[in-house]
Amino acid sequence: MITQGLSRRRVILATAGTMLALLLAALDQTIVGTAIPRIVADLNGLDRLAWVTTAYLVTSTTMTPIAGKLGDLFGRKPFLLAGMIGFVVASAFCGLAQDMTQLIVFRGIQGLFGGVLFATVFTVIGDLFPPSQRGRTAGLFGAVFGLSSIVGPTAGGFITDHWGWRWVFEVNIPVGIIAVLVVLAGLPFVRSKASWRDIDYFGAVSLAGGVVPLLIALTITRDHAWGSPEVLGLFALSVVMLIAFIAVESRVQQPIVPLHLFKNATFSVSMLVGFLTAFGMFGSILFTPLVFQGVLGISATNSGALITPMMFGLLGASTLTGFLMRRIRYYRYLGTFGVVVMIVGMWLLSQVTPGVPEWRVVASLIVVGLGLGVTFPLYLTAVQTALPRQYMGVASSQIQFWRNLGGTVGSAILGAVLANRLPDYLTARVTSLHLPAQVVQSLPKGGSANSILDPTLLAKLPPAFVSAIRYALSDTLHDIYLFAGLILIAALVSTVFMKEVPLTNVPQTAGFGEEAPPDEAVREQRESVPA
């Protein structure tokens, strides 16, 4: 650990600065969404609207594992500072964008530095704290992540309404400057014997070549069929490049993702559980507004406020789990319990129908948040403790990578369920009304949830048909939440195969039951020097 010899004040400063860096990156993911309608109106880019989000997602997810490995080679502080400075500069350019193309490009650049931040901030926990304290600290970091989800949408709406959408990006500048100054003062720099020759350039290129088309293919399934040439072509390119990536990683000395790590049960199970639980998280976050607005008929403003309790559940469970981990011998069962709670929450959400009290949906979301909050600190801490210190950045960044990938895959698949099931359910519900043929022909067609829930359109429809729409959407969401629950059952089974590693303060030199081989580039003989 690099905290040996550091004063308590410097440890607190380093932790606070890293938390600010996490807040900077996490807040940007939620604060921008509420400004999108105003951005489109100002820049006239409705046809490219999705790319504002897609560009950030693709670049940040791709950069996360690369930055994690580079941090292992060259130390965390340079990348944390570079990530924050680059993120702030890119944010400033986003705020200055004059058209949609510029905004998309700057959001992509911002995502690159966001990936650096996500890969680095959680790794710093392993650098600053011994294993017995990492769970508690990871829980606090998870609370920061949850807090950003609560504050972001409200802050984004307020800033957009009072200062304009450009300030949604510019607000990152003062937060970033404070974070940079605090990290400069608190986080020590760890010298390394690695050189630029140790970088796995071919691995980075092949990884990007595999992940980028995969993510783009998944995101464009919102307006392209899964069997379309565009989607299939991108999937084929992704498969070819990922095969090349595996071939490269099995041959280089310093691979970005050492393939032998997947032989470690703690590592592989943590990645799998993170990937699968992302289905539940994104299923709740993405489709719950449809529950409130579509099924229950609540306004968009009020529905946003009603989602907030889920994040409080996540925040509380994340913090509590961090404290419990070092007090429970078989802490892997905390993860099992968390996934069970998530499944219960998904089942409760699947039972929502028109007329159900709002509090029942809110309670269901809190249950999902509680279960999800347990998994955040648990698997991060377990992976960091299970592997040799030379893989700290790889382990931490892989957790984030597989969660992001799981969320993207889950969003695409659950979105496909919505698009495929809604038209059939709507047809069945309308048929059961036995309306005159001329009335049925004048009613809206298609299965777009957004189009059939347009308030202006609904106001012109017969009450019976509005009720049929709400019940059809309820039926569809029932299938979506049950499908997400089935995925979580696979995560539940996976949790019991994880092996606990004692959360002791003994320095980590071993992995997989044997002493870690010496590595001149990243060996433990690094020394901390004042920043």
Keywords:
mainly alpha; single chain; two-stranded antiparallel ribbon; 19 helices; 531 residues; globular; disordered C terminus
Please sum up the structure shown.
This protein is an all-alpha fold and 531 residues long. 74% of the residues lie in helices and 2% in strands. The two termini are 16 Å apart.
In total, the number of strands is 4
Morphology: globular
Portion in beta strands: under 5%
* Rg over alpha carbons: 24 Å
Quaternary structure state of the chains depicted: single chain
Model regions low in confidence, pLDDT < 50 over at least 5 residues: 506-531
Give the % helix. over 70%
Q: How does the SSE layout of this entry go?
A:
Blueprint: H1 8-31, H2 36-43, H3 49-74, H4 76-96, H5 100-128, H6 131-162, H7 166-170, H8 172-186, E1 189-190, H9 201-219, H10 229-249, H11 265-295, H12 300-324, H13 332-350, H14 358-386, H15 392-431, H16 437-441, H17 449-452, H18 455-459, H19 463-495, E2 510-511, E3 514-515, E4 528-529
Antiparallel strand pairs: 1-4, 2-3
Helix pairs in contact: 1-5, 1-6, 1-8, 3-4, 3-5, 3-9, 3-15, 4-5, 4-8, 5-15, 6-12, 6-14, 9-10, 11-12, 11-14, 11-15, 11-19, 12-14, 13-14, 13-19, 14-15, 15-19
